[in-house]
Amino acid sequence: MKLYVLGLNHERASVAQREAFALTTDALVRFYARWRRATAASCVVVSTCNRTDVVIHGTDRDVALAEALLAAEAATSWPNAVAFVYDDEGAVRHVLSVAGGLRSLVLGDAQILHQVKAAYHAAVEADAVDSVLHRLFHTAFQSAKRVRTETGLARGAASVSSLAVSIAQAQAPGRCLNGQHVVLVGAGQMALAALNALTRYQLASLTITNRSEQRAAALARRYGGQAHPWNDRHAVIAAADVVLVATGAREPVVSAQALPPRCPTRPALLIDIAVPRNVELTVDARPGYVVLDLDALSEGVAATAAARQAALPDAQAIVEEHLAEFVTWFFHQHALQPTIQTIRSTFEAIRRQEVDRHGHRIPEMARPDVERLTQSIMQKLLAVPIVRLKATDPDSLDFVRGIQALATMFAQPGTQPASEAFGSRPASKPSGGCPFAHGGVNGTHRLPEETATHTTRDAFPVETSTACSTERCAGCRSATSHARSSA
User: Fold this and answer.
1) Which of 43, 49, 468, 473 is catalytic?
2) Does residue 468 have an active-site annotation?
3) What residue ranges of the chain have pLDDT lower than 70?
4) CA–CA gap between residue 55 and residue 443 (Å, rounded)
């Protein structure tokens, strides 16, 4: 089994291609259900406005399965020409880079870590995650926290939403949003990020419209705006200077036919940051309206990216550090320890077989001495190779498979090497969907000072602080809730 990442993103795929393969909540549930019926491999699907990635611990056949399931949901063929597949270190580096915002449309995107955490939680709830992916994603969370706190990668426009506001500022009359009438269509996470970016401007008015009028009203009160009924959204859009559109709808919510013509000398600027797109393409041809989507916004990324390029080498160094730590963990848990266990088990089985075969020649009183003698011989035979194995420093996941091949060579006929059995997906998901859950008082568990590890059902240790008081100890509410307090 290997680590893979397949998918498509803003780097090569157009908005139309990305929106075709974006997964709704219901589609994600169907994907995981079909995945579990078809394979025992593990996966996590990260689907956002700018990417659809599938992280897999499995085989080449599982990669093909993921492509087929995504194509089935999109009702079209998988776009190999713009898609990507990474494996081994490339896959790990990709996951760490995505979580840290190094592969985002907006370099250092502040929203992506939240989205990756949500994707991980959904996979855990679907019982699609094994010990390897648990460890990988917690490593990604720790790496992303360090990138954000130790580098300048998140300075400036920190998300697609804030970039949209910056571009609205540049495109607005007088190149300023002060005094402009702004409408926000939507009330989700991206809309919230846009509202936070708008707080620095003195707007003439701020109007929020959303299918949930209660949600729109709550945000309007919080940000000093006014809520507007969803069914009358086209009227308020027609009267606005700038419109930011970010809903979770699968179909356009802004229709060209429903918008009245405007004076073309002062057009309304509509910025659509949703995937799938929420504004009909024909709105841009309507007199008095200009529409920008994510493809158009990518042109404005250059200025933000240039300001953050200086911080990129430091961020990449952090990713490489955590990549090396993951490779070392994987080596010890999936190669070194299982291989030593397999070699010892095989030698012990041979020792017992020979002692039993010649047992009738050994006086009963001498049997304990024979046991001690043969065990001593076995231990001395294995001492040097095991010491040298433990001193090995892995330099790649490919090297790990070489050690795993050694375990296969020493495995007894008809048995499964420990390295192959380790890390498979648990038969059932842990209680509450949390792989680190432990009993405790008032939701708090404390581990012995000398161990300070969580252990999942399939026995992988994760370094932690000695006390953890998260309600569901999955390490995702804080990117370092399972990192040592000194990290």
Assistant:
1) 49
2) no
3) 155-158, 173-174, 299-307, 334-336, 391-412, 414-487
4) 31
